[in-house]
Amino acid sequence: MNNKSSSADRIREKKKVFLGREQKIIDAALALFLSDGIDRVTVSSIAAKAGIGKGTVYKHFLTKNEILVRIMLDYEESITKRLAAGIAKTEAGESGAAAKAYFESRLARPELDRLVQHLEVRLIDAQDVAEQLDQLHIMRRSNEDSLNSMITRLIDRGVLEDVPPHYHYLACWALAQGAVELCFSRSWNYRLDSEDLMKFITGVGVTIGNRGQYRDPADMKK
Fold it and tell me: 210: which strand partners?
């Protein structure tokens, strides 16, 4: 019995070490991608940054693309978790919680959000990570289904404008997308109040689509 317990403990400890080292690789890779750009970073430089051998990196990730897609999946999972918590609060009566969670997730680190967007463009046709990209799309479709259900209920309750549900979450996406790009605009990124600006944009995003804001252009002509 003790031998079995001891064996199980060793397996758990090995797994813990393995996962800890894997996270160390991801953290090192992310730091390098953000500072040096995707193309300048090699598996060798990631290994050096993580303080491990190049061969050890390959025990976790067979290609650089696998590291890139892992960063994408981790980011999408973090958004999904925060969005799910926001949806739960919205269902409990806090109508703007889901939108707030979404904006705070994306605008907390605009540089990371923008990197992930670039990674997605880069990997769109990469066959070696096609399965992982499918996981990404499954997460997004699940989020979309949850948002459609939540928004439909808010429309029925008279909280949001009565338009197709995807109008609401795509309006939020467009505002968040613009906010991220704003942080890197040569015309505007010299400002020193970017953190407060992101908070203001988040506040605007929380109220997007509230009932009474929208007038159909066709109705305005009557």
Answer: 160
